[in-house]
Amino acid sequence: MNTLLYEVKIKLDSLGGLGTITIGTMPETPDAVGTLYEYGGQAPERAFGVVGVKYEKPAFQLVFRGAPNDYKGPRDKCELAWRFLMGVLPGPLGAGIVTEYLEIDPQQSPFPTEPADGNKRIKIGCNFYAMKVPSL
Question: What is the pTM (predicted TM-score) of this model?
Fold first, then answer.
């Protein structure tokens, strides 16, 4: 079972100051919200003597949306989350998560993911690759 997004959400919630974070779908309300999406990662790593996958290498995107015409709010939240996740050390994520993560590797600094929507809300996001022991 791939619980990457749920585990990363718990970790981000433990930081505080990021507001509501959803998984998989960005709701229409509230205006200011963050959403975690998964996308194609890298091939899993196998090892001699290990049945199945030794390490998973999933990828995910974190996107923050702000109030109408607010660039700074979602940009600041994305930067805070980006730096926080970049600082994850090998081992369990903490916050009650026992899955061992070897790394959460940012792919680029926060950037606008698309033009403002019809309500003039701006979305700022960042992408990550992770390497982890399969979740139980």
Answer: 0.92
* 21-23 and 97-106 strand pairing: unpaired
Residue 121's domain comprises 4-132
Structure token pair of residue 8: 């990363």
CATH number of the domain that residue 27 is part of: 3.30.2000.10
> Binning pLDDT at 50, 70 and 90, where does residue 2 land?
low
Residue 126: CB atoms within 10 Å: 22
* Chain-centre distance for alpha carbon 57: 14
Percent of the chain at pLDDT > 70 equals 98
Residue 1, SS3? coil
Structure tokens at 53: 């996958």
Element (H, E) at 37: strand 33-45
Residue the block writes with tokens 């960005």: 26
If one counts the domains in the chain, the total is 1
With cut-offs at 50, 70 and 90, classify the pLDDT of residue 45.
confident
What token pair was written down for 25? 């779908």
CA dist., res. 64 & res. 73, Å (int): 9
